[in-house]
Amino acid sequence: MVSRLGGLPEAPLPPRPPAMRPSQTELWLGLALTLALLAVRWASAQAPIYVSSWAVRVTKGYQEAERLARKFGFVNLGQIFPDDQYFHLRHRGVAQQSLTPHWGHRLRLKKDPKVRWFEQQTLRRRVKRSLVVPSDPWFSKQWYMNKEIQQDLNILKAWNQGLTGRGVVISILDDGIEKDHPDLWANYDPLASYDFNDYDPDPQPRYTPNDENRHGTRCAGEVSATANNGFCGAGVAFNARIGGVRMLDGAITDIVEAQSLSLQPQHIHIYSASWGPEDDGRTVDGPGLLTQEAFRRGVTKGRQGLGTLFIWASGNGGLHYDNCNCDGYTNSIHTLSVGSTTRQGRVPWYSEACASTFTTTFSSGVVTDPQIVTTDLHHQCTDKHTGTSASAPLAAGMIALALEANPLLTWRDLQHLVVRASRPAQLQAEDWRINGVGRQVSHHYGYGLLDAGLLVDLARVWLPTKPQKKCAIRVVHTPTPILPRMLVRKNVTACSDGSRRRLIRSLEHVQVQLSLSYSRRGDLEIFLTSPMGTRSTLVAIRPLDISGQGYNNWIFMSTHYWDEDPQGLWTLGLENKGYYFNTGTLYYYTLLLYGTAEDMTARPQAPQKVTVPSPSWQDSALSPASSGGGSTATHSSQ
Ligand SMILES: *[C@@H]1O[C@H](CO)[C@@H](O)[C@H](O)[C@H]1NC(C)=O
Ligand SMILES: [Ca+2]
Ligand SMILES: [Ca+2]
Ligand SMILES: [Ca+2]
Ligand SMILES: [Ca+2]
């Protein structure tokens, strides 16, 4: 083993410690020292163990090294670097391992005028970067992160780099949090907590016979259950601080939502929410004015201007053919919406497909599929956490790991990173498509399964995204009858700021804002095709939505055009997929493009289809965060 190169001095150095004259006294001393060292070794295992190798620096290179070797009985094992200065000498007559240096050789080498520096080698305590697996008894049940399956959330890879969410604060907006739970109390953060149902600082859940207020406690444990405490499992970001906002166990108003989403925005980095309008397949509803304002303030002012991260569950309305683009919370550009997949990589029965989903993590499936392990009410542990609301906290924990790797990431940086760190992996869907920049994307999964190892690697070296630009293009503004199948085309050329410079070269979110009436809303499918040929469904048919209300100033969102060039022909499609005699009127339609002036495709691409990392866990040495100026990016808002 070569010694630490960084420590090699340039100038000749006296050997350390100063050479001793091996007198009788000193031999006794040496023996005493040996015994003492043995004792120390027993005590601490920290004492150096000397081996029979020397590194020697000589002035005249190979010849000198040969001469020394012959003179003192070493074997010259040759140069250490190819520059003929440092040589590796080994002595056969010296014990393979010893607790003391060889005083005789030390003295002789020190006296030789041609030797500029030398050091008898010691064994270095080096631990292979092998998997440090939490010792928690239920970690073996955490199949989505313990490498039981080949392509899991790849969280061990991030942990292995020492990333555990330290310094990151997450709050779960839900029905409370059991703050004295044995797996939560150590990470519990009262500053990230509040009770907006009873207006007090204590978010302890209200206990009922059916334990219906267990949801927040379960979500909290996924993010930040304590590791290595002999209890339950481990959270994804098990050193992150975790708080809970009790807000779902009472009358929910725009005020309650807005206050919850803007609790301590300079203290809380990530809010995880797994709620929204009814998933009944016939509701079209979104945040009220105050809650929209809370989102806007969060992303512009929260986290010292870097932007609060709102992680959102995409919805559980699969059974009712619900569509998460009819939910204005997941649908918002300010929330990072997370879908679910089963252990087998299937679309779960409760899953809602829509174009605004970014990414996917694991959750439950049919009864025989394993579920999510986490903390439960009454100081318990459960392996029965389910649904899309189990997926969002896993993503929130992974994003905490990314924030620890690079705390300067803005809310938009994180969305860019999540797009790049999601992989189709083994996820099965009928609608995987390759978009205009070569990424696979699906309405069930967004860009695929989120990979924590990839996410933190990309986060470290991410260059800040340029400011967000917005371009609003009024396409239809006079009432137009909706035909059974209608295409509305718009050639987008003038997305510039008046000068010649183009405002948006690379897209982020794309929205379609429209008002229309329709005899049966759920029968109308709406889709949008980009100039690069990417088609995403803005809303699929919802058989249970028999409303005659149409869409009133509704905003649909798609993430599928991420990084595409917006210039060219955009096509909005409206198609009657139900009752033959449906009729309606399109009152207006505005295309809203968001993005940046930078050509994001010119950045070095992270391969989306990364192969599974080798089991050696020997991580490549990525340089530490190179981005220094991420905090100055400005954002325009929705
Ligand atoms: C869009 O407009 C530009 C500039 O007027 C033109 O060059 C281009 O051919 C048009 N594209 C389509 C698809 O009509
Ligand atoms: Ca309370
Ligand atoms: Ca634990
Ligand atoms: Ca829904
Ligand atoms: Ca969203």
Automatic annotation (TrEMBL):
<dbReference type="InterPro" id="IPR000209">
    <property type="entry name" value="Peptidase_S8/S53_dom"/>
</dbReference>
<dbReference type="InterPro" id="IPR008979">
    <property type="entry name" value="Galactose-bd-like_sf"/>
</dbReference>
<dbReference type="InterPro" id="IPR015500">
    <property type="entry name" value="Peptidase_S8_subtilisin-rel"/>
</dbReference>
<keyword id="KW-0732">Signal</keyword>
<protein>
    <recommendedName>
        <fullName>Prohormone convertase 3</fullName>
    </recommendedName>
</protein>
<dbReference type="GO" id="GO:0000139">
    <property type="term" value="C:Golgi membrane"/>
</dbReference>
<keyword id="KW-0472">Membrane</keyword>
<dbReference type="InterPro" id="IPR038466">
    <property type="entry name" value="S8_pro-domain_sf"/>
</dbReference>
<dbReference type="GO" id="GO:0005802">
    <property type="term" value="C:trans-Golgi network"/>
</dbReference>
<feature type="active site" description="Charge relay system">
    <location>
        <position position="389"/>
    </location>
</feature>
<dbReference type="InterPro" id="IPR032815">
    <property type="entry name" value="S8_pro-domain"/>
</dbReference>
<keyword id="KW-0165">Cleavage on pair of basic residues</keyword>
<feature type="region of interest" description="Disordered">
    <location>
        <begin position="603"/>
        <end position="638"/>
    </location>
</feature>
<dbReference type="Pfam" id="PF00082">
    <property type="entry name" value="Peptidase_S8"/>
</dbReference>
<comment type="similarity">
    <text>Belongs to the peptidase S8 family. Furin subfamily.</text>
</comment>
<keyword id="KW-0325">Glycoprotein</keyword>
<keyword id="KW-0378">Hydrolase</keyword>
<dbReference type="GO" id="GO:0016486">
    <property type="term" value="P:peptide hormone processing"/>
</dbReference>
<keyword id="KW-0645">Protease</keyword>
<dbReference type="Pfam" id="PF16470">
    <property type="entry name" value="S8_pro-domain"/>
</dbReference>
<dbReference type="InterPro" id="IPR022398">
    <property type="entry name" value="Peptidase_S8_His-AS"/>
</dbReference>
<feature type="active site" description="Charge relay system">
    <location>
        <position position="215"/>
    </location>
</feature>
<dbReference type="InterPro" id="IPR023828">
    <property type="entry name" value="Peptidase_S8_Ser-AS"/>
</dbReference>
<dbReference type="InterPro" id="IPR036852">
    <property type="entry name" value="Peptidase_S8/S53_dom_sf"/>
</dbReference>
<feature type="active site" description="Charge relay system">
    <location>
        <position position="174"/>
    </location>
</feature>
<dbReference type="InterPro" id="IPR023827">
    <property type="entry name" value="Peptidase_S8_Asp-AS"/>
</dbReference>
<keyword id="KW-0720">Serine protease</keyword>
<dbReference type="InterPro" id="IPR002884">
    <property type="entry name" value="P_dom"/>
</dbReference>
<dbReference type="InterPro" id="IPR034182">
    <property type="entry name" value="Kexin/furin"/>
</dbReference>
<dbReference type="GO" id="GO:0005788">
    <property type="term" value="C:endoplasmic reticulum lumen"/>
</dbReference>
<feature type="compositionally biased region" description="Low complexity">
    <location>
        <begin position="620"/>
        <end position="638"/>
    </location>
</feature>
<feature type="domain" description="P/Homo B">
    <location>
        <begin position="465"/>
        <end position="599"/>
    </location>
</feature>
<dbReference type="GO" id="GO:0031410">
    <property type="term" value="C:cytoplasmic vesicle"/>
</dbReference>
<dbReference type="GO" id="GO:0004252">
    <property type="term" value="F:serine-type endopeptidase activity"/>
</dbReference>
<keyword id="KW-0865">Zymogen</keyword>
<dbReference type="Pfam" id="PF01483">
    <property type="entry name" value="P_proprotein"/>
</dbReference>
